Amino acid sequence: MISVCMVTYNGGLFIYKQLTSILSQIGSNDEVIISDDGSVDNTISIIKSFNDKRIKFLCRQGIPNLVKNYEYA
Q: What is the mean pLDDT of the chain?
């Protein structure tokens, strides 16, 4: 099993292309763990629109912080 870990924060302009690329390169038993740091744009709705069981979505609460977001993921 491969686990791809990524973090997001207001990445709506890029997340669709990123996830499409990642999902096309992993197998059916692999996963993409996404931790969002409180996005206020359309990032979360785009992620949820994939409706792919390989995506594990987490929402981190608190002040946006890149390092803490990776740790959370």
A: 94
